[in-house]
Design brief:
Layout: H1 9-21, H2 39-61, H3 84-96, H4 100-108, H5 127-144, H6 157-163, E1 177-181, H7 192-197, E2 202-207, H8 210-219, E3 225-228, H9 231-240, E4 245-250, H10 257-263, H11 265-271, E5 272-281, H12 282-288, H13 295-306, E6 310-317, E7 322-329
Parallel strand pairs: 1-2, 1-4, 2-3, 4-5
Antiparallel strand pairs: 5-7, 6-7
Length: 330
């Protein structure tokens, strides 16, 4: 962490444990950026971190298991600890139950059953195996609780990687110059962290939110350009200066999604020499009359609507409401 907030990760974990044991025993400190309650978000982060740690533990110790690709959680010593007395049992449990991580959540947080987590193990683990897996879960939970977007917190690159969301990573590889719009609200955890990991030569970050943009200067390279500006003004300025970017990323909010993705597409594609990654909300696919996975249909529909000949190369679901799309000039 670059800067901690009111509570460190261990304090958050201890408060959550008290809350899980008896919800009336501790009051939500409302330590969010806008003085909002934090227990729901802390709980979600703790669960995500604990499950990620269990997957990392299984991946590190049992390479024969079919596990999803590694996220950014590092192989902390607690995750790769070996205990010969329970190794075989944990491997057997993981092979017969692909929901093992979810079921550990129930053991750690009995009151979360209403979240539709699996009700029971296929085979009950021994106390020794359960204790080891719980220790791994706790280590991962505390790792994720280091940054929970509370007031005063500024994460490092490591914390941002831990919380990084799905992104079309292949499209940013090999790009030398990048422009990221609407990137400051969550300090780039949705997009900029992936651009950073691709090691471009130069990046320009544009957002109207001055405070988080200033915080991003403490996280990302000082050689990058940080522009506090409306996105449309930044695009006009870049056009006037005849700038170009290999990659443009726009994480625009829903109210102006069509404006950015369609109305501004001619200007953006004049600046962009390779890939434009932007948000498409479900309503936009409906308006185009094209399914979200029909790349050819999307290419034709958007070319017709905007007058810019483009090719859609990828769509990636972010949530039930919105997708990333990758667009290139034809």
């Amino acid at each position: 962490m670059i800067q901690s907030g009111r509570f460190n990760a261990l304090a958050k974990w201890e408060m959550l444990c008290r809350f899980w044991a008896d919800q009336n025993s501790v009051t939500d400190p409302c330590a969010g950026r806008f003085n909002e309650p934090v227990f729901p978000r802390w709980q979600d982060d703790a669960i995500a971190g604990g499950k990620a740690a269990i997957r990392e533990y299984l991946r590190a110790n049992f390479p024969e298991l079919p596990l999803p690709p590694r996220r950014h959680l590092q192989a902390h010593k607690a995750f790769i600890h070996r205990d010969d007395t329970v190794d075989g049992e944990i491997l057997r449990l993981a092979k017969e139950d692909d929901q093992l991580a979810d079921k550990i959540v129930l053991e750690m947080i009995p009151g979360i059953k209403e979240k539709n987590y699996p009700a029971s193990f296929v085979t009950e683990p021994s106390p020794q195996a359960l204790r080891l897996i719980q220790q791994v879960f706790k280590a991962g939970a505390i790792e994720y609780l280091r940054w929970t977007e509370d007031a005063g917190e500024i994460p490092s690159i490591h914390e941002l990687r831990c919380h990084a969301a799905a992104f079309p990573i292949e499209a940013v590889q090999g790009q030398r110059k990048a422009l990221c719009l609407f990137c400051a609200l969550f300090l780039g955890r949705s997009d900029v962290i992936h651009v950073y990991d691709a090691s471009p030569e130069h990046v320009t970050l544009v957002d109207r939110l001055s405070d988080p943009l200033e915080e991003m200067k403490l996280i990302y390279p000082s050689s990058w350009e940080y522009v506090c500006s409306d996105y449309s003004e930044a695009l006009r300025m870049a056009t006037t200066r005849q700038l170009s970017y290999d990659l443009v990323v726009a994480d625009q909010p829903e109210p102006i999604a069509k404006e950015v993705a369609w109305d501004c597409l001619p200007m953006i594609m004049n600046l962009c020499t390779d890939s434009f990654i932007t948000n498409y909300f479900v309503e936009m696919f409906t308006d185009l009359g094209v399914a979200c996975d029909d790349l050819s249909g999307l290419s034709q529909a958007v070319t017709l609507r905007t007058g810019v000949e483009v090719v859609f190369t990828q769509t990636m679901k972010r949530s039930d409401a919105v997708y990333w799309v990758v667009i290139r000039r034809k």
